[in-house]
Amino acid sequence: MNDDVAFQISTKVINTLIVVFIISLVYLVFRFWIKSMELETKSKYKKRFWYASGIILVYFVGKIWMEGFIHLFAFLGIISAALTITQKETLMNFVGWFIIMWRDHFTEGDRIEIGSYKGYVHSIGFFYFTLCDEFVHHRHTPTGKTFRIPNGLVITSPLTNHLRKAQMIEYKMIYLITQNSSIIEAMNLIKTTVDQVVDSVYQKGDEKEKKTHHVPASSVYIKPKFDEPSGIEVNLCYYCYPKDQIDIEKKSYQLILEALQSSDSIELAFAPTHRFILHKELDFESLQSHKLVDFQKSVKK
């Protein structure tokens, strides 16, 4: 009897060591495969490998050592079904974590928008991920607020990732000029300036690095605007990576506004403003009768 128990235990130990050896061998092959990848990509794949290895190891080791406990598994199955009903949110959060890790929706450092939340992903856990509130427009400083968001939200809410390096996104800049301005000159000025700013960002480095940044051509078109302030809208569409959008927009606005200040043929349109200078001798009733402005009858002297 004791010999049979010892034999079974030794068999289980050997099988467990075989599983560990196979996973270790796969890890060596995996390390060789990711050796030439970028540090960020390598870190992401390493994390996924350890998660997958842990799940596989627990499954096979549990199967080896729990063999013969069929009734126990049946009991655990009933408990699992009950927990699925009572702990629906927890289960959805875990499934959401699995989707995040394996569908590559986002990773640490990405700037995302999910539901009504926007910000940078700080960390990703089994049930929650932490989101740092994004910086104020044109400032590279965080607001200090953090959101702890359930992973299950990725299943039920639209998700936008603004920091993917794989593709460029179209952005738009709009300038409103007066009807008497030179439209052709304004279109050429805005397009040329933005193209130069975009080229200065992506035409750095050697020829190999330049080829990796294939920037689609920008386009410019006009559209009349009749409501206040009225004028001609010059719309420029350009492409860049999301992480560069704020810097490109900030520099482009600065250069274009400086060029427009020195131009005599282009004038920006603004909302009309009215200024009234009131003197003590001014008759308020006469102003009201001419409908210049509505004044209260009682005025403190």
Structure description:
With 301 residues, the chain is of the alpha+beta class. The protein folds into three domains: 100 residues; 56 residues, SH3 type barrels; 93 residues, 2-Layer Sandwich (GMP Synthetase, Chain A, domain 3). The protein is built from nine helices and eight strands. The strands form two sheets. Strands 4-3-2-1-5 form a five-stranded antiparallel beta sheet. A three-stranded antiparallel beta sheet has the order 6-8-7. The longest helix has 32 residues.
Q: What letter string, H or E per element, gives the SSE order?
A: HHHHEEEEHEEHHEEHH
Integer count of domains: 3
Oligomer: single chain
Q: Describe the global form.
A: elongated
CA-based gyration radius = 32 Å
Mean pLDDT: 75
What profile does the largest beta sheet have? 5 strands, antiparallel
Structural class: alpha+beta
Widest sheet, order of strands: 4-3-2-1-5
- Helical segment tally? 9
- C-alpha end-to-end distance: 111 Å
**Beta strands, count:** 8
Low-confidence sequence ranges: 290-301
Q: Beta fraction of the residues?
A: 15-25%
Percent helix: 40-55%
Condensed summary:
This protein is an alpha+beta fold.
What is the fold's blueprint, element by element?
Blueprint: H1 2-33, H2 39-65, H3 70-86, H4 88-103, E1 111-114, E2 117-124, E3 128-133, E4 146-150, H5 153-156, E5 159-161, E6 169-177, H6 183-202, H7 207-212, E7 219-225, E8 231-240, H8 242-261, H9 284-289
Antiparallel strand pairs: 1-2, 1-5, 2-3, 3-4, 6-8, 7-8
Helix pairs in contact: 1-2, 6-8
